[in-house]
Amino acid sequence: MSRPTAPQLEHPDAASTESAPVDTEEAASGRDVVPLLVPQDGVPDPITDPLVLLDWARRLAEPGGPVALDAERASGFRYGSRAYLVQLRRPDLGTALFDPIALGDLAVLDDPLAGSEWVLHAANQDLPCLAEIGIRPRTLFDTELAGRIAGLPRVGLGPLVEQMLGLGLAKGHGAADWSTRPLPHDWLAYAALDVEVLIELRDAMADLLRSQGKLEWAEQEFAAIVAAPAHPPRVDPWRRTSGIHKIRDRRRLAAIRELWLVRDDAARRRDLAPHRVLPDSAIAAAAQALPSDRNALLELPVFSGRMQRRQAHLWWDALERAKRLPDKDLPPVTLPSDGPPPANRWSVKDPAAAARLAAARAGLAALSEQHGVPVENLLSPELVRRTLWRPPAGTDIEAALIDGGARPWQVELTAPVLRGALDATA
Length: 426
Description:
Blueprint: H1 24-29, E1 34-36, H2 50-61, E2 67-73, E3 83-90, E4 94-98, H3 100-103, H4 110-113, E5 117-120, H5 123-132, E6 139-142, H6 143-150, H7 157-165, E7 167-169, H8 185-196, H9 198-212, H10 215-227, H11 250-270, H12 274-277, H13 280-289, H14 294-298, H15 306-310, H16 312-324, H17 346-349, H18 351-371, H19 375-378, H20 381-389, H21 397-403, H22 408-424
Parallel strand pairs: 1-7, 2-5, 5-6
Antiparallel strand pairs: 2-3, 3-4
C-alpha cells in the first residue's frame, strides 16, 4: 500500500510515545495522533522455511478470530502483479511475514484460513495475487470499502487508522521494489504495521456502519467481492497503451499492436515491468511516425538510447510486420460492443436517453448526499448507463439491476430513482 513518507516514530506500547503528529492535516486540526511505527511484538523475519509454514498452517487451523492480511508487489519493477511478501496477523498468534518466492506458494494455508474472516484494506488490489499463490477468502471485511460506504472523506489506510483509532502509521515503502532480497529491516517493519491494527480498525468500522444502519449494506458488498469470478484475460490488452487514443489509422494501430506484443514477450522473459523495456510513449511515437528505415527509427526519442539501439532489430521487425499486413488483417479502430455509447454522445444518438441519464444522475447525486455514500458505490455507473440506454420492457428496473449484479441494498435505494427518471422523461 503506497502512502506518503512520514518520520520514524514508535509503537504506543513502547517506552516513549511523545512525538509530533505524523499527519500535517491532523496537526493543523489540533488532534493528537499516537505514532505507530514499531510493531508491538517486534519485526518478524520473513518465513522462507516450508516447515515453519506448515507450523503456521497448524496454528491457524485452531479456532480464532478474524485474520488480517496484506500483500506487497513489485508491479512497477517486475512483470505481472505477483505477491513478493504476504503479511498475516491474528491477534492471538501474532504477525507472520511469508516469502512466497522462497516458499513457492501458500496453498497449505488455504484450508486453515477457510473458517476465518479475512480483513483487508482495498481487497480487490490484493485478492488476485493471493489467489495466484493458492489462498482465497470465504468471508472478508474490506476496511477501505467500509470507509466509502460510511461516507468518510479519506479512506486510505493511514487516514482511516488516524480517524478511527487515533494512531499514525509508518509510511513510505508501498511503491518499493518488493522483489528485493534481502528485504531491508525498515521495509519489513512497514509491512508488519500494515496488518498491526487492521482487526481493531475492522471493529471500529463495523461499529460505525452499525450506528449508521449500513452494516448490512457493507456485508452484501463484501460477499459480492468473495463471489466475484476471477478476472478474465482482457481483450486486446495492447489497446491500453498510453497515447493510443490519438491514433485513428488502422495501419498505425497495427504498429502499436506489434510493438506491444514484442515488448510484452521481452518483459515476460526478463521479468521486468513492460515500461522498463520500452515506454508506452516510445511505442506510440514509433507507430505515429512509421519510420521508413531503421536509421529513422533510431532517431526517434528513446530509440536513440544505447539499450534500445541494441534491441533495434526487435522494434524494426515489429514495424515491418505491421507495414506488410494485408488490409483485411488490420485491427479495427474500435472494438464492437454490446454496451451503450459514451455518455457524451447520447444527446446526438438518442436525446430521450440523454434526458433519462441526466435525470437519473441528478437523482443519484441527491441520494448520495442523503445517505453519505459515493455515487459510484450506490450503483455502478456502467450499470446505470446500460439500464437507461435501453430500458427494460415494462420498466422492470429491479430485475434489470439484479441481472446486472446490483446488490439488494443498492436495488432498494436506486430503483425508485431510475424509475422516476424514466417516468419524468416518458
